[in-house]
Design brief:
The chain is α/β, with parallel strands linked by helices and 284 residues long. The protein has two domains: 2-99 and 249-283, Rossmann fold (3-Layer(aba) Sandwich); 102-246, NAD(P)-binding Rossmann-like Domain (Rossmann fold), CATH 3.40.50. 35% of the residues lie in helices and 21% in strands. It is built from nine helices and twelve strands. The strands form two sheets. It has a six-stranded mixed sheet with strand order 2-1-3-5-6-4. 47% of the residues are buried.
Length: 284
């Protein structure tokens, strides 16, 4: 038996064990996907354990996608550009870091909305590892403008400056607390929530970013939170007539890319989606 797991804190919301195990079983792979909740003080030890012969690798989630970069041996070029890791592969005791979030986000965005990058003005809420992946993907598509909103403005500025060598898009920042007073010349075409606000099992489950005044009927609002599938933010966007997109699509696509890295096999995406839906039904 070989093992893969997810590392983060907390992990109660994670659906990765359910859909990744379903994918391994579907292909008759002798691999078990486990949940490895880890406190920050224990993170170096947990990452080092990934070098064991019976461990293939891991997924990395909130809040460690940036922290683990200094704990692996080699980092994929795309992950270096993004500045965060969400997938680790153990190759004979050597740890390789990847980021599948960016491609997973973009694939889902195109599949689940009428997204066209030309002229797009986007608001990205958050400045952690997921926000880095989202912004990197949007930069690759050469949208026009990105506004980063974060509680700690210094962190947003650092994120902005990490991408400032690109000529497009124009990137600016704002304090998350100042979002209610943001009054752009036009409504945003795309808003992406990269924070845990609205996540099931947390004390923010009933909360959502104050962005409703920035939305019209053509605004795509993408919530990376996938549990619950319809967050408080997406419920309100639906009522406003905007275009709500759940984080489930990104979850599946980033997971499928990680599956390929670990196993060399194309992921059975339909099996993954079915497992997620079944687990969400059990959780309601």
């Amino acid at each position: 038996m070989e093992y893969v797991g997810i590392i983060g804190d907390p992990l109660g919301h994670s659906l990765s064990p359910a859909f990744q195990q379903a994918a391994f079983d579907h292909l008759d792979l002798n691999i078990e996907y486990q949940s490895w909740p880890t406190k920050k003080r224990d993170l170096p030890e947990r990452i080092n354990l990934l070098r064991s012969e019976d461990i293939i690798g891991a997924n990395i989630t909130i809040p460690y996608k940036i922290d683990v970069m200094e704990m692996v041996d080699e980092i994929d070029e795309k992950a270096q550009i993004i500045g965060s890791i969400n997938t680790i592969h153990n190759k004979n005791g050597k740890l390789f870091g990847y980021n599948t979030d960016s491609n997973g986000f973009i694939r889902s965005l195109y599949e689940e909305s009428d997204f066209k990058p030309d002229g797009i003005h986007a608001l990205v809420i958050g400045a952690g590892g997921s926000a880095r992946a989202v912004i990197s993907g949007l930069i690759e598509k050469q949208i026009d403008r990105i506004l980063i909103a974060n509680k700690t403005i210094e962190k947003a500025v650092i994120l902005m400056e990490s991408f400032d060598k690109r000529t497009k898009p124009v990137i600016s920042t704002v304090k998350f607390q100042d979002l209610p007073s943001v009054s752009p010349e036009r409504k945003f075409d795309l808003i992406v929530n990269c924070t845990p606000l609205g996540m099931k099992g947390t004390n923010t489950e009933d909360q959502f970013p104050d962005v409703l005044h920035l939305v019209d009927e053509s605004t795509i609002v993408y919530d990376l939170v996938y549990n619950p599938q319809e967050t408080q933010l997406l419920k309100r966007i639906k009522l406003l007539g905007g275009i709500p997109v759940s984080g489930l699509g990104m979850l599946v696509h980033q997971g499928a890319l990680a599956f390929k890295i670990w196993t060399g096999h194309d992921a059975p995406i339909e099996t993954m989606v079915e497992a997620i839906k079944n687990r969400l039904k059990l959780n309601t």
